[in-house]
Amino acid sequence: MTEEEDVRALQLPGHLCCPGCAGPIGSKLILKALGRRVVCFGPGGCGGMAVKTVPCFTLHFSGVGTGAAGIAAALEMKGKSDITVLSFAGDGGTSDIGFGKLSACAERNDNIIHLCCDNEGYMMTGIQKSSATPYKAWTTTTPTGKVTWKKDLVMIMAYHYVPYIATTTIAYPEDFMTKVRKAAGIPGFKYIHILQPCPTGWRFPSELTVEISRLAVQTRAWNLYEIEHGTVRITQKPTPKPVREYLAPQGRFRHLAEQDMKEIQVSVNRQWERLEKLDGKNLWWPE
Amino acid sequence: MPVMRLLDGNEAGAYAAKLARVGVIGVYPITPQTEMVTRLARMVAEGELKAKYITAESEHAAMSICAGASAAGARVFTASASQGIVYMEEVLWAVAGQRLPVVMAICNRTIAFAGNVRATHNDSLLQRDNGWIQLYCENSQEVLDTILQAYRIAENRDVYLPVAVCLDAFSLTHTAMPVEIPDQKDVDTFLPPYKHEYVHLDPDMPQEIVYGPEPDDVTEYAYQREVAMQHAKKVVREVDEDYHRHFGRSYGGPLEEYRCEGAEGVLITMGSITGTAKDVVDEMRRRGQLIGLVKLRAFRPFPSEEMRAIASRVKAVGFVDRNFSLGSSGGGVGCVETARALYPMEKRPLLLDFIIGLEGRDVTPDQVEQMANRVLSAARTGRVERDVEWVQLRS
Hints:
The complex is a heterodimer of chains A (287) and B (395).
Chain A: H1 3-10, H2 23-34, E1 38-42, E2 56-58, H3 66-77, E3 84-90, H4 91-97, H5 99-108, E4 113-118, H6 153-158, E5 164-169, H7 173-184, E6 190-195, H8 199-202, H9 209-218, E7 225-228, E8 231-234, H10 244-247, H11 258-278
Parallel strand pairs in A: 1-2, 1-3, 3-4, 4-6, 5-6
Antiparallel strand pairs in A: 5-7, 7-8
Chain B: E1 3-7, H1 9-19, E2 24-27, H2 34-45, E3 52-55, H3 59-71, E4 76-80, H4 82-87, H5 89-97, E5 103-108, H6 122-125, E6 133-136, H7 140-154, E7 163-168, E8 177-181, H8 184-190, E9 208-209, H9 218-247, E10 255-258, E11 265-269, H10 273-286, E12 291-296, E13 298-300, H11 304-311, E14 316-321, H12 333-342, E15 350-355, H13 365-381, E16 388-390
Parallel strand pairs in B: 2-3, 2-4, 4-5, 5-7, 6-7, 11-12, 11-14, 14-15, 15-16
Antiparallel strand pairs in B: 1-8, 6-13, 10-12
């Protein structure tokens, strides 16, 4: 079996997600990176609409991380050390209802990889705001735009002093798979935050998913980096485009005034400046 | 060799989990369960028990951890009470739906505010509809024995349902008695290692275990769990009998009839009130009063047939409900359940309900006698004066 065929065997072709969904692209990359020796845990959200042929265990989405923690404990007791336990959740599960649970998994340093599949809202229930929804974005519960900033889950998780944290997005498959493979090789709790553009919720044509994902990085609206034992490393340093190029194609930002655009650009610049200062340095123990 | 130790209900529970060689323990502290789980922490820390001990951040997480570990092939244990049970309720439905043989001790405690830490049965009884088997204990010895039995019941291939072993807050969790701790070798013979025949998380045999079926299959899946519950009736009895063969103790399976021979009326009790009630029945019998006692061990599956068999021999039945079901068709949860069980009988006895012992309020021998006399009076006169009586209600 070639490598390509093997991946097709791990996630069956075709899915019940919306056209252009980034979810199945992401899970395919994860399985391609890790192969067959995995057990997945997650909710029955959008992610479940792409059928995987690896073992999957599901609880309601509020159980974020914990089912995986139980699985990892059982596998350890049974001496099965070659299996990677993956914990999937959306941004709602990760940042809202399951936030405490995930925090506990990190604090206990449970031997799992948590993958936050961030489409910036409760998309399966019909585009409601989560605390990972960005500033000013329209959702059905923020009809005039969200008035607060996106929760910085990555930094919050980093301050749990866990061995590995990374951000990625589907337009950078090599970056994505490298980080997943790296996480699998590190014992303890690993957190990977994946930006997953959602054509349905973000209001853009379904053929633009990869393009929007790439624009997020190119405009520095979403930065790719990793934090290994506290040491920050930026993995993509794009020549920046204005954030307008990322926001404009998305219907959820259609109502933005010029002043909003400026405000978001200032925020994006500041985020990058902070990150750049940290690049190569230890976040936890600065010199 | 078995050894005798002075143990309270919490310690007995911890010893049982250890003897069952649980592999994963996921816990969150709550009064009055804490001694059970902290004792287990020490057992793991000192190497007496080889298990992963996971400190969850909530009861909801503790049960989720147990679910994942059970699906991945570990025998699991947890304990909780009161608000903790309510908080984990969502996962309790999933665990039963996934047919995971999780065993949990419920240290029955009032659901109210933080100051209410004593016994009421509402926390476990709330879970009567979701597929959890429920066994209620009278004393510490029974707690130990019932937890060992619970794993055999839960892991039976015709059952595969989770089991809650219920013990009253403080009157059982914190009251010590001499308990016989069986020898590990004998327990190993009684309880073989856990292996689920249907559920596994193995990359070589991939399987998806969800928390609910497809919409079109909900009826069939629920019915399968009901079939498993009906199987469990037999299994609860068989396991109790087998336990007797191994260890010389048994508890009558789903219920124990205590001095019911020739009785005109019976009281039905659950949990620690039973001990007091047995003494009162002894005394009344000595005086020639024909009262009997039924200790209901299994609330789920509810032993309707056994109940009817007893009811067919008496003229009145009184349920001692340490719980309440506000606005119900009449009385506490136990009484309502019993009424349905007795309804198909051609000649039904009279049914009385007593709400008593809420928030651990002491149930005195005098009060038990008062309830017994009400039952006997109904049996004699053929008339029920008050069908639901809040026995200890202050005026």
